[in-house]
Amino acid sequence: MDRLSNSDLSTLIALRRDLHARPEVSGAEEKTAARIADVLSWIGADQVVTDLGGHGVAGIFLGAAPGPTVLLRCELDALPIEEVGTPDWRSTVPGTGHLCGHDGHMVTMLGVGQMLARTRPAKGRVVLMFQPAEEDGSGAIAVCDDPAYAPLTPDWAFAQHNEPEIPRGVAHVPVGLASAPSVGLRVAITGVEAHACAPEDGLSPAVAMADLMTALPALSRGPFPADDFRLVTLTHARLGEPAFGIAPGRGEVMVTCRTTSDASLTDLVALVRGRVAMVTDGTGLSVEITEHDHFLAGMNHPEAARILHSASEAAGLKTMAGDPLRASEDFGRFGHDCPAAMLLLGAGPGPALHNPDYDFDDDLIAPGAALLLGAARAITG
Q1: Which of these, 9, 95, 109, 335, is most buried using a 10 Å CB contact count?
Q2: Sorting pLDDT into bands at 50, 70 and 90, what band is 320?
Q3: Angle formed at CA 160 by CA 157 and CA 163, multiple of 5 degrees
Q4: Longest dimension (CA), the chain
Q5: Mean per-residue pLDDT, 128-157
Q6: Is the pLDDT of residue 322 over 80?
């Protein structure tokens, strides 16, 4: 029977809270991954694949007959943020916390695994993908580029993410754009340091930096999710050394660029690079621009979204088409290989994702597992 018992849920909640207390950031999820692999083996997965794209883990449940492959995906990584909440299971790792709910997503997926182990798919197979490094956008690409992923390539892919801004009991299932593409740009500017008593002997990047800190965010326009939406967010700036005797010769500005399509993101990056050149050309300063944390657009295929919509209703949730996430989510890479969709599962009201006092709501485990399993069953039986 496709149902988690009270005993199942108690075990999953205990595991979730223990994972919450032992977070690991993107690319460093070694212990978390090992634990997930052990639990998948204990549950009875037919095959467990490890070290996918780093520390990724896949649990495979085979059907009785040949058929399609359905991939259900969750995330392993935590955030480099100090947790200030006060639960008994608060983070024991300084400066690191499961403040996005990935601990809850993992145990929800393990709940799906428990039900699949009791009743295997009628045909095909279900792959439970525990993906590393979602928070910096590198994990999904690394997993899909790993040669060990090729035999697992799905015909359908689904995911869910808790969302405190949506009321509990509600699932938002966007059609089309589900999450915005984004990329971080680091603009490093180099001049020449000088003594503070004679700044004219050096070349300071201060004026150029000040101009960029206003000029780059000014490139933003339009409401989200309009086609012409673009957002440039200043996220960090640093000038010189923290000393009174040195006129600065180095600085950096970091911005995040965000749009509603991969093509428009490429255009925005070119626009930012052009604006940097306008500000710095002829100044004698040297400039290096590097790209980081590149997230592809998450696109919900109409038929995949319909399957998630139906599965959510069968799980007792109120469903809505919903707006896409203005935040980025690297699940979009899986949709390059097959029809894919991700829904937002209401967790509100409460602290927002990435807030230092955020904690996953354990009451979301049962409906989250039910809707993901329902999506898989709709295809594999």
Answers
A1: 109
A2: confident
A3: 155
A4: 80
A5: 96
A6: no
**Rounded percentage of the chain residues whose pLDDT exceeds 70:** 100
- Tens digits of residue pLDDT in 36-71: 999 999 999 999 999 999 999 999 999 999 999 999
Give residues with Cβ within 8 angstroms of 49, minimum separation 6. Answer: 57, 58, 60, 148, 152
- Cα distances (angstroms) measured from residue 8 to each of 83, 211, 307, 359, 372: 28, 57, 26, 21, 17
Q: Is 145 exposed, middle or buried (0-12, 13-18, 19+ CB in 10 A)?
A: exposed
The answer to whether 165 is annotated as binding is: no
Beta bridge partners of 345: 162, 171
Residues 6+ apart with CB under 8 A from 164: 347, 348, 349, 350, 351, 352, 353, 358
Point out which residues pair with 127 in neighbouring strands: 60, 71
Local structure of 321: helix, strand or coil: coil
Residue 98 known to bind ligand: no
Total-model pTM: 0.91
Summarize pLDDT for 216-228 with one digit per residue, the tens: 999 999 999 999 9
Contacts for 3 with CB less than 8 Å, ≥ 6 apart: 115, 370
Go through the domains of the chain in sequence order and give each one's CATH number: 6-178+297-380 (3.40.630.10), 182-294 (3.30.70.360)
Q: Quickly list H helices, the chain.
A: 6-21, 30-43, 102-118, 139-145, 206-215, 262-280, 302-314, 365-380
Residue 354 assigned as binding residue: yes
